[in-house]
Structure formats: structure tokens, C-alpha cells
Amino acid sequence: MVKYGTIYHRGHRGKAKRDEEEKPPLDPAKARERVFQRAGKLLAAKPRSVAELRERLLEGRGATRDNVEEVIARLREYGYLDDAKFAQSYASLRVRERPIGRRRLARDLWLKKVDKQTAEVALDEVFAATPEDELIDRAIAKRIRLRGKPKSREDAKKLFDHLIRQGFAFELVSDKVRALAKSEVDEPGQ
């Protein structure tokens, strides 16, 4: 509570807590149904991994670990939750949207709470279909379209840093930028 003059104010947090205390606890069947409804809404908004959905569901009112696990089991049974499918579709969509490297995609899947083994399988599938060499060439072409060819060592360094941030392997980036710089040196003499 905050004192203003001689009047005490609770603020909005006190009211919310008071409202929560006044509501009767939900019976288990209603709580489970509420968790299931929330899971449906969360999955309708965007696909999620099992761990990501579990975390979000546990934040809701009336959600207990048992309710959440029961709902997740039912969603898996219905085919709405599958980390392998989620990781594969997420990775392939990201690669189609813009050229990014394996390291960046692995980090993104980790942030989505996909386990490492499932993520590796998905990454292997995606990068078998679209090799990283092809993706880095697309990334370089896009960068050159937007900013022009690197004219100085500083520009080449900026391109190098950009490609590293996009998750491409150090050796691959180094080879590509070096080849691009070499072609730049060869061109003016022709």
C-alpha cells in the first residue's frame, strides 16, 4: 500500500489479488476443461513444442501439473502435438523465408524448447533438402542487392559479421567472403 497524504491506496495489484482470493477454487473437471480450452487457443494461434505449451498452460488459472500433463497426453493422442513434426516444419519454413545457417536455426529451435536430438534430426532433413552452401549464396546475393558489393576491407568485415549472425559456419563464411573479395580484386584489372 502507498500512502498519499493520509489516504492509503492499494493500487491495481492489491485489487487483482483480492479478486483472486474471493473466487472459489475450480472443481477438477472444470479446471481440466479450462486447461484444454486454453491449449486449443494457444495452438490455434501458432504451433508450439510440447515444452513450450506446457510452460504456457501452467501459467493459467486452475492449471495444475497433473491437469496440464493429462491435456498434453490427450493432444498428443489426437495428433495436435508432435515435437518432431513441429521442429521439421518450423525449420523448413524459416529456411524458405530467408537464408539462415544451421547454428542459428538450432538456437531458434532451442528457444522453442525442442530437445536437442529432435532438433538435430529436423535440421539434418532441412539441410539435406537445401544445402547450407546454397543458402549462404542466397544470403550473400541478398546482402549485395541491398548494400552493394563490398568495396573495402571494412565492408567485407561487415558482410562477414552479418553472415556469422545468420548462423552460417565460420569456415564457410570465411571461404565465401574471401572468394568474393578475390573476385573484386580480379575484376577491376580486366
Structure description:
- The protein has 190 residues and is mainly α.
- The chain is built from ten helices and two strands.
- Strands 1-2 form a two-stranded antiparallel sheet.
- β1 (2-4) and β2 (7-9) form a beta hairpin.
- The protein is elongated.
- The N and C termini lie far apart (78 Å).
- The relative contact order is 0.08.
- The model has no long low-confidence stretch (mean pLDDT 85).
Provide key terms for this protein.
single chain; 190 residues; mainly alpha; 3 domains; two-stranded antiparallel ribbon; 2 strands; 73% helix; 3% strand; elongated
Helix content: over 70%
Uncertain residue segments: none
Radius of gyration: 25 Å
**What is the strand tally?**
2
- β-strand amount: under 5%
Q: What would you call the structural class?
A: mainly alpha
Secondary structure topology:
Layout: E1 2-4, E2 7-9, H1 11-22, H2 28-45, H3 50-58, H4 65-78, H5 83-97, H6 102-111, H7 116-129, H8 132-147, H9 153-165, H10 170-186
Antiparallel strand pairs: 1-2
Helix pairs in contact: 2-4, 3-4, 5-7, 6-7, 9-10
Task: Give a brief outline of the structure.
The protein contains 10 helices and 2 strands, in the order ββαααααααααα. It is mainly alpha-helical and 190 residues long.
